[in-house]
Amino acid sequence: MVDVDPEQTPSSDEPSSDASDKPSKKKKKGNFWKELPVLILVAFGLAIGIQIFLGRVYMIPSESMETTLHGCTDCYGDRVLVDKVTFRFTEPSPGDVIVFRGPPSWQNDFITEGTGNPISEGLSWLGSLIGLPSANEEDFVKRVIAVGGQTVKCCDEQNRVTVDGKPLDEPYKHFDEGTPAEQESFEELKIPDGMLFVLGDNRNHSCDSRCQGQGGLNGLVPVGNVIGKARVIVLPPSRWGGVSDHNPQVVSMGAPGWQQNVPMGLGIVAAWPLLLLGRRVRDRFRR
Prior knowledge:
27% of the residues lie in helices and 20% in strands. It is built from four helices and twelve strands; from the N terminus they run αβββαβββββββββαα. Strands 1, 2, 3, 4, 9, 10, 11 and 12 form an eight-stranded antiparallel β-sheet that branches. Strands 7-6-5-8 form a four-stranded antiparallel β-sheet, with no helix packed on it. The model is unreliable at 110-115, 130-135 and 252-282 (pLDDT under 50). It catalyses: Cleavage of hydrophobic, N-terminal signal or leader sequences from secreted and periplasmic proteins.
């Protein structure tokens, strides 16, 4: 007969290992639901911070930038990601497609009607903070043609815009089908420092520096009003791609091929010493 130690016998009063696991699981589940509101608030705060300081999605509500950016009445306009960081360190240059706040002399070349419902308008405002695009009556998108210190005029004998007397190379320029491929002329204008002369790519369907404020100095855009540079078309998926920033003041065929390849060649040559130095450093750490 084998003696059984009563201290070693399992007691019915003692909880099993499975039973002891259940409270911890409930505790973990309870912690998740407590942390969820905090996670949502953190995510919302990060989204707002990104929108304010880094970049934001904007909707193109008009056809003034066709065909670079798609936007027209009763159609699904492009949504573009606008970089807000670049112009903190540099100023806009010719060819940049920019989003900016319209100066007081500017009037909208598109009209958006509010719903009148405070709830829906409030939701729209919250959505804009986290990147849901909406039409904005005060923000415009155009292409920079000339900057402070330059003189712009249209047109030369071949109906081209000139800057400082030199014709521009504008492959992005668009004219609607069935309309003459001629752009409206405007008088010579010297651009003051800190100002920008901007035009729409859909040259005859854009109210820009030529007509806003009746043109002239009233049609210029202060550099301080620039919000950012349009970088990428994010919606619709069929339109995914980068936004052209071709500099119209630089003639693409102006430099010989060997000169165009100089920067690339210098980059390759400079990369070799860095590569060798990196290998030596890695070998020393391994030793």
